[in-house]
Design goal:
Blueprint lengths: L2 E5 L3 E3 L4 E8 L7 E7 L6 E6 L5 E3 L7 E6 L4 E6 L8 E9 L3 E4 L3 E6 L1
Parallel strand pairs: 2-11
Antiparallel strand pairs: 1-3, 3-8, 4-5, 4-9, 5-6, 7-8, 9-10, 9-11
């Protein structure tokens, strides 16, 4: 059974930092592309950043230079370091694990709220 468990969401002031973590189980973690998505109220879920199994990274334009995604295959975990947070970064952040032909999985989400 695949499980993705996010943690690290919190209420923070604008300009602050947070580090989100996602721990995976039930998957061959190193073979999966991992990503962070977010969803604000009344908006569609959007990609924030992803990191391929080989380590290549990709970021939404809105977070480039402020957020960093990383992974630790030994710990079966992916991280999102978020700096210089803005109110528009608020939302529920979801961890995603994806591998062609094998599956596409989501965590339950963690709430990030940035106050102005």
């Amino acid at each position: 059974q695949v499980q993705l468990v996010e943690s690290g969401g919190d209420l923070v002031q604008a300009g602050g930092s947070l580090r989100l973590s996602c721990a995976a189980s039930g998957v061959s973690f190193s073979a999966y592309d991992m990503g962070w998505y977010r969803q604000a109220p009344a908006k569609q879920r959007e990609l924030v950043a992803n990191i391929a199994s080989g380590g290549n990274t990709n970021y939404a334009d809105s977070v480039k230079g402020r957020f960093t995604i990383s992974r630790d295959n030994a710990k079966k975990s992916v991280y999102l370091q978020m700096n210089s947070l803005k109110p528009e970064d608020s939302g529920v952040y979801y961890c995603n694990a994806r591998r062609k032909w094998f599956g596409n999985y989501w965590g339950q989400g963690t709430q990030v709220t940035v106050s102005s």
